[in-house]
Amino acid sequence: MRAPVPAPTGAKENAAAGTGAQGTGAEDAAARARRSPRRARWRQPLLVAVLLAVSSVCALSLGTPHVPPHRLAGTVLEGDATLAGIVVTELRVPRLVLALVAGACLGAAGLVLQEALRNPLAVPEMLGVSSGAALGVAAPLVLAVSLPAAVQPLLAIGGAALGGGLTLFAAGLGRSPSAVLLTGAAVAAALQAALLVLMVMADQLDLQLIYRYLLGSLSARTWDDVAGLWPWLLVVAPALVLCAPVLSVMRLGDEDAEALGVRAQRARLAALAVAVVLIAPVTAVCGPVAWVGFLAPHLARRFAPAAGAVRWLPWSAAWGAVVVTVADVPARLALAPVETPVGAWTALLGVPAGVLLTRSAGRGRGGRSRRGGTGTEGVR
Length: 380
Prior knowledge:
With 380 residues, this protein is mostly helical. It has one domain (44-346): ABC transporter involved in vitamin B12 uptake, BtuC (Orthogonal Bundle), CATH 1.10.3470.10. Helices cover 78% and strands 0% of the residues. It contains 14 helices and no strands. Helix 12 crosses helix 13. It is globular and about 65 Å long. Residues 1-37 are annotated as: Disordered. The chain crosses the membrane at residues 42-62, 96-114, 126-147, 153-173, 180-202, 229-249, 269-294. Its main location: membrane. This is Iron complex transport system permease protein.
């Protein structure tokens, strides 16, 4: 018998080296994969915190009179009686708080509507909710119907419920999300036309009010306006917490949601009611601030695409606050001493940003599907 020929020593060493190199490369890839979620986990909170801090300092410091950033804390906490102190504490701080609260409400409402209708384009402005709330508040004021200021949120809620309910009933109680969106666009256009009719009927003083309810503005808002929002937020916050898990189930579709015990039509109506209570009080104070409800949920999904509605909801509120606070700085300062509506700046920033986010999300889904197909072919 012939004895087996031993393999060359160099070949063994090369094979061992290749195996070791492959093992080292796999370990490095695994280590990078473990580190990347940690980096992504901190990326969103860090970016939100930085944007909120910078925009807040700019909102309180810039303008006439100018207050240096290092003096802001003393001016606010000590109650400075100078002109700068009065302007900061009585005008700029309540305006900043209103921007944060309004943006958070609109961002959360946008996510609720998009998840309930399973359509990333479902926003308050496209469903008749914002226009209905604006019309409910503006109509009595232009028609010289004297009502107390405490009734304005109720008028806004009634108008928003009318606009949203008309959209759902006209679309067949929300059986088709695409039909709801198309019908809502028609209802919103009709309500905007009614606001334009009021503009023709209004005098010069009322025209400023109509502009606010057409575009949205934070101008001349005080602590009384901010205080009027808190009762509604206390009512809607528990409902919003209970609504988030149901929204995660509704993403599966009406049939699968029914199989899991969720009645899709009732859940959709409940989601609309929650969105109405979020949007209407804000609209009663500062008008419909456009595109916040569209942009904030997309930003929340961008940083956590694999999460669900429960995790997206607080980040949608945070991004909504960021969008309104950042947009209010140029709205107040770009054409000083004339202020421009903050809704015009949110639309100006939101349209290109929304297009970029939707396109990048589409490319990401296409890239994942192509990579998945390649991997499957390799296994086969």
